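Fold sample X.
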Amino acid sequence: MTTAKTSFLGCEELEEIGFKQIGKNPRVSRNACFYSPEKIALGDGVRIDDFCILSGNITLGNYVHIAPSCNVYGQGGVVLEDFSGLSSKVSVYSANDYFLGEAMISTTLGEEYMKQEIGPVIIRKHVIIGSGCVVLPFVEVETGAVVGALSLVKGIIKEWSVYAGIPAKFIKKRDSDNILRLEKEFLESRI
């Protein structure tokens, strides 16, 4: 008897891709692409939707959701901690070309002709990055922060705050009590 394929990859198919780590119950779209999967770690309950591209040193914590059409480039390392998520069409770059004429801009030419700023991107627990945002190298989005749609994220985004704009600027504080209560309730229900 043949088993019908779902829109998500099965356990054996995920193993064949060759991820660094695969947690329990991942849901990974058949339409997602992975480059250097041996450098990508997936935590428990991770969901990666259609048309996403993940490449390089990437660590996804538990219950991370990457919505459709996101791009995560981990040359300098990207971490998304537990309960964080990227809304549709977010691009996360841990490497960025210099555009002021110090080098040429094309990966087809070789490293001796390129100059890049390479640095980690850390997205802490309970962070949501809104649709269409661009996240640059050397960014830390602290616990519980939210970044509004179509924002440019540079530097440090402070915890339990809402940011938006180009570049993203502080808008207001976010209440953490209910979110942390719900996290505790959820985790206790898993025992």
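Fold sample Y, listed below.
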Amino acid sequence: MREIQNTTESDSDSDINCETGDIVEDSGWETSNDSDYSRAEQSKTVEWQLIKLANQKANLGEVLKDLNISHTNVVYSPSGWTHNYFCPFKDHHDKSPSFWYNPSENRFNCFGCSRGGKAVIFLSIYSNKKQIDVAKELLKKYGNLDDIYEDINDELQIKIDKLVLESSEYFKKFIKNHENNQKLIQFAENLFWSLDIYLEKLNLMKSDIEIENLEARLNIIKRKLQKFE
């Protein structure tokens, strides 16, 4: 079995010799750190989804109220930054109110210690906890965490299926348009074979695939093949 080349993608024409039509062996598209794809990295997608969902569900204004953090004044602002506070973070000794809350965007920003974000990062800083732990605590208030995991995985699977289907359709169209060029067809098959190996290596586990990573790889394949359109 041919070894997958650990080379970075190039926009040069070195992937296939246009004069002879010969396939050049450095046409692999995997990145050099694929062999080091750790379980911690694999879990990021689900963690990011949990944090994003927790930020969508949690109202930062209610969080501040529950912590007895009171605003010093409320002002009109077309930008939405209307509620002003003394910064509640323990490592910031705020001498004048520099912490602002934007209800329309559900986010905070402290112009004194230069920190900002939504509910998860606020509670992470305030309670000195990891963002993923804060997200899980918040989400437990809104339902069964196992059900939430299942919903996220279902959503990820839909995105993965869509990307794989789109790449498959592109591959079929490319083969049809170049059916008389066997060397170019072989070149395309090698690229998609590398993609198959990548997906097989991850065992198609939903939580093991970063959507952005997969999409970037598919775009690399398309850019390589579009040179010959």
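Sample Y note: The chain is about 50% helix and 5% strand.
Also: Residues 145-177 form the longest helix (33 residues).
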